[in-house]
């Protein structure tokens, strides 16, 4: 049995049993991957995958158990390599972060700028996706960190650390009826206009829907997007009012739009940074977390990572969120 073979079966499983896609991701040939999987199955005396001709169609029960153990073995091998690298070159390495467009565009730039200054020899890789994709990538070991607001709680393998709270604002063109209001906006007033906001599952959209539902208001959402800049574009075209994360409003770049606060209308959302439990964190990884949320000291991170039970971790994370609210 070779580590390479374990890498191959893991990647094939990740790629939906598409051997060609797995071979491309592994920078090798499709026949080579197929041959090594066959050799491993012959050595073990069981089939890992069910085949229909040349195609893999499903994972066998034995294969599912083998993949679980293979994942742990490969994770331990990666941690061993990281321990050695930490002692050999503590300021060199790689860091991969999966996040949403909003975090990558508005929250992470100053963090990354500071991190690059502190660790110029660390290669940083940003991956963008939907919150479920992001959390899945971190849980599966494809990236080191996941940074998102939605969906993180559905992955028990992740250690979730609350970073900061944020809320929303309303954007309208000059001359719009809501721009003329002198009082704080009411949810009923927003419900009277077509709304442009985030796609469901992105950037705290669930809190927006919950607020309207609690008041029995059915919002007229005419357009959704994952990108706040796209939302602003269509607000400028007069298609509707925009509801975006407050961090996405730039007083200079968006001076042609009128911003009205909406933090009194919606429950605040919390952005988390998550990583797979059991991941060996190098010094620069701790620093990245602390750069992003300065209350997340290494001892706090280690405390959370040491909690084995997912429910207890979520309870502790909720306590940390509550302490953020009181700061």
Number of strands: 12
Give the topology string: H per helix, E per strand: HHHEEHEHHEHEEEHEHEHEEEHHH
Content-based structural category: alpha/beta
Radius of gyration: 23 Å
How many helical stretches?
13
Portion of residues in helices?
40-55%
Subunit arrangement of the protein: single chain
Proportion of β residues? 15-25%
Low-confidence stretches: none
| Coarse shape | globular
- Order of strands, main sheet, comes to 4-3-5-12-6
Question: Helix and strand layout, with pairings?
Answer:
Blueprint: H1 3-14, H2 19-25, H3 30-44, E1 49-52, E2 55-59, H4 61-88, E3 93-99, H5 101-107, H6 109-118, E4 122-128, H7 131-139, E5 145-148, E6 158-166, E7 168-172, H8 187-190, E8 195-198, H9 205-214, E9 221-225, H10 228-236, E10 241-245, E11 258-261, E12 269-276, H11 283-292, H12 298-305, H13 310-325
Helix pairs in contact: 1-2, 1-3, 1-4, 2-3, 6-11
Name a few traits of the molecule.
327 residues; alpha/beta; five-stranded mixed β-sheet; 44% helix; globular
Notes on the protein architecture:
- This protein has a five-stranded mixed β-sheet, sandwiched between helices. A five-stranded mixed β-sheet has the order 9-8-10-7-11, with helices on one face. Strands 1-2 form a two-stranded antiparallel sheet.
- 44% of the residues lie in helices and 20% in strands.
- The termini are far apart.
- β1 (49-52) and β2 (55-59) form a beta hairpin.
- α2 (19-25) crosses α3 and α6 (109-118) runs antiparallel to α11 (283-292).
- By secondary structure, it is an alpha/beta fold.
- The protein has helices at residues 3-14, 19-25, 30-44, 61-88, 101-107, 109-118, 131-139, 187-190, 205-214, 228-236, 283-292, 298-305, 310-325, and strands at 49-52, 55-59, 93-99, 122-128, 145-148, 158-166, 168-172, 195-198, 221-225, 241-245, 258-261, 269-276.
């Amino acid at each position: 049995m070779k580590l390479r073979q374990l890498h191959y079966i893991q990647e094939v499983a990740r790629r939906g049993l598409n051997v060609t896609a797995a071979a491309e991701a592994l920078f090798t040939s499709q026949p080579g991957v197929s041959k090594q999987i066959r050799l491993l199955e012959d050595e073990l005396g069981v089939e890992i995958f069910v085949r229909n001709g040349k195609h893999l169609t499903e994972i066998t029960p034995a294969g599912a158990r083998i993949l679980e153990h293979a994942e742990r073995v490969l994770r331990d091998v990666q941690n061993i390599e990281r321990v050695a690298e930490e002692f050999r070159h503590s300021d060199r390495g790689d860091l991969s972060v999966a996040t949403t467009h909003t975090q990558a565009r508005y929250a992470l730039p100053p963090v990354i700028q500071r991190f690059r200054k502190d660790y110029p020899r660390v290669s940083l890789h940003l991956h963008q996706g939907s919150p479920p994709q992001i959390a899945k990538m971190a849980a599966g070991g494809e990236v080191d960190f996941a940074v998102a607001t939605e969906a993180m709680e559905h992955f028990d393998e992740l250690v979730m650390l609350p970073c900061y709270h944020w809320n929303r604002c309303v954007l309208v063109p000059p001359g719009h009826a809501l721009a003329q209001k002198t009082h704080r906006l009411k949810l009923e007033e927003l419900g009277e206009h077509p709304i442009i906001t985030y796609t469901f599952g992105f950037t705290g959209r669930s809190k927006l829907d919950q607020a309207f539902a609690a008041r029995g208001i059915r919002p007229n959402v005419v357009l959704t997007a994952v990108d706040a800049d796209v939302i602003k574009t269509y607000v400028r075209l007069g298609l509707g009012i925009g509801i975006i994360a407050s961090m996405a409003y730039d007083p200079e770049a968006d001076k042609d739009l009128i911003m009205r606060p909406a933090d009194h209308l919606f429950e605040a959302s919390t952005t988390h940074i998550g990583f797979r439990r059991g991941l060996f964190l190098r010094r620069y990884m701790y620093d990245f977390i602390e750069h992003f949320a300065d209350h997340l000291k290494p001892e706090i991170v280690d405390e959370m990572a040491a909690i084995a039970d997912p429910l207890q971790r979520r309870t502790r994370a909720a306590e940390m969120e509550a302490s953020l609210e009181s700061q």
